[in-house]
Amino acid sequence: MAERQHDFSARLEAFTGSNWASWFGRLQFFFEANDVTQPVKQRSHLLTLFGAQIYDVVCALLQPKTPDQVSYAEIVAALQAHYDPRPSEVYSHAMFQRRDQLPGESVNDYVAALRKLATSCNFGTLPTATTATATPAEGTASPTQQGATGCNPTLLPLDVMLRDRFVCGLRDQNLQQRLFAEKDLTFSKAYDFAIRAESAVQQQRQIKADHTEVNKAATRASASVSISKTHPHQGQRCWRCDGSHSPKTSEQPMQRGADCVCITGAAERNYAQLDREGLAVVFAATHFHKYIVGREVTFVTDHQPLLGILGPRKPVPEMLSPRMKRWCLKLSAYNYDLQYRAGSRHQNADALSRLPLPDRIEEPNPPGDVLMFEALPRPPLTAEVVATLTQEDPILAKVFSAVQNGTVQRLQGDSFTPYRRRATEFAIHRGCIIWGSRIVIPAGAREQAISLVHAGHRGIVAMKACARSYLWWPGLDAEIETTVQSCAHCQRTQNDPKKAPVPNWTHPTTPWHTLHVDFAGPVEGHTFLVVVDAFTKWVEVRPMNSPK
Question: Are strands 426-429 and 471-472 parallel, antiparallel or unpaired?
């Protein structure tokens, strides 16, 4: 009997290259519904339902053969390998084990997602499971039957894997605990129990949601005709909340309270920062007691250490001061929560300092600074000036090159002796020679450096101490001494220690009461002992046999 002709294009859309498994499954049902059983007819209808692009792909996959030289089963196998390759079994298992119930996902959707992931996992079957007895037509293969016959007998059955993943992936912890407590739990039992629990939760929510309408009071409509009026504030914006209503009807604070540390007592002015921040919280609770007692209230502070001391869920530390312990006891009478907010996020605190003027005001420099810069006798001694003079100095130019090459000890001549002694201590920075933390001044800048150190006429000791911290060149100390000694102002203000007073001898009243004894000489090789009587001025001179 000849087969009937059917218009498949009106029932089945052409294959576009995506979701091959779904399209091929629907194609099998269309073949079955229209009694297309011969492989040749199936091949013709399959190639007809392909567009030009998919047909070119089929021809490329079958090279060097053409579509009319291969069977329907070979074409299906080539397309299956190209558009729907079998994923890695290890990867499929990993995706299956990582799948948990998503927020807002129902139990039915979660089970459907698990079954879809299990299709490529090749799980085993139960020992008592029976397979379908229906034999597909020659050259055709049902995807469901392919999965059943290709199961791995060494793996756990599909129902066991679905049960384990389903129970472990549930978001409802109470339901999960109930399922863990069940004995001989199967996937069907777990699924039915979860469906019933989900339905019970939804029904409970509906009952609670409808409860508010039970006591709703109905009012009788007025028989009078209402006259519509234009809202007086229509089109206007409330400056409080940016709404379209009068500012008087906007939500406003019931009471305000402020406590300034500068007006408190002397004891509170000496509080530490932690105590001051804690005092603000206690003051707010005491000031607004009649509004917050018996209600949930939130205190916002910009001092984060308070959260560990005055937090409602924190124990009172044993080492806390008695004052802070009393405050913790006082705050325990309120149902409060303490939150931290950084000071930069407090937009209502000190608005004038948080919102500066957009324009920058250019203020003139103070007259004293301008006078100081205008009165400079010469430009300042900068690193660029020192580097330039170093290259112009005949001695330091050679020292500079020797420091770069590491050959300072090879310099010959008496003028390089001070540099050879410090050969390993020199360095180069910004074109200048550095000795430790002191810069080596060339000869062209030494006079200016001395004048900078000599400013203020501080004296030799202070000038040497200042110079030894920043400057160096051979003979620096000697030049400082010469400069101070030649400065008239320094000489007038130098330290003049008081001389020792001349001893006042008591005049004797009798001869030989007071004697002055001393040695004289040597005179012509002799030493004499001279004794003078203070009363009579008598002089006795005797030669000494020995100088000792």
Answer: unpaired
Instruction: Point out which residues pair with 335 in neighbouring strands.
Output: 296
Residue ranges making up the domain that contains 478:
380-492
The C-alpha atoms of residue 209 and residue 279 are separated, in whole angstroms, by 44
Tally of domains in the chain: 5
Q: How many C-beta atoms lie closer than 10 Å to residue 118's C-beta? A: 19
Do 194 and 147 meet the contact criterion of CB atoms below 8 Å apart?
no
Whether 230 maps to a domain, the answer reads no
Torsion of CA 474, 480, 485, 490, to 10 degrees: 180
pTM assigned to the model: 0.29
What are the structure tokens assigned to 123, written together? 């799980």
Q: Is residue 81 classed as helix, strand or coil in its secondary structure? A: helix
10-residue averages of pLDDT along the chain (548 residues)? 47 70 75 77 75 75 77 78 71 81 87 81 60 37 42 68 86 84 85 86 74 49 51 64 65 56 62 86 89 88 86 82 88 89 71 66 69 62 89 91 89 89 89 90 89 86 89 90 88 77 83 89 85 90 76
**What order of strands is seen across the sheet that includes strand 539-543?**
515-523, 526-533, 539-543
What DSSP state is assigned to residue 184?
Answer: S
Check: CB of residue 532 under 8 Å from CB of residue 520.
Answer: no
Q: In this structure, what DSSP letter does residue 355 have?
A: S
Is there a single domain that holds both residue 189 and residue 95?
yes
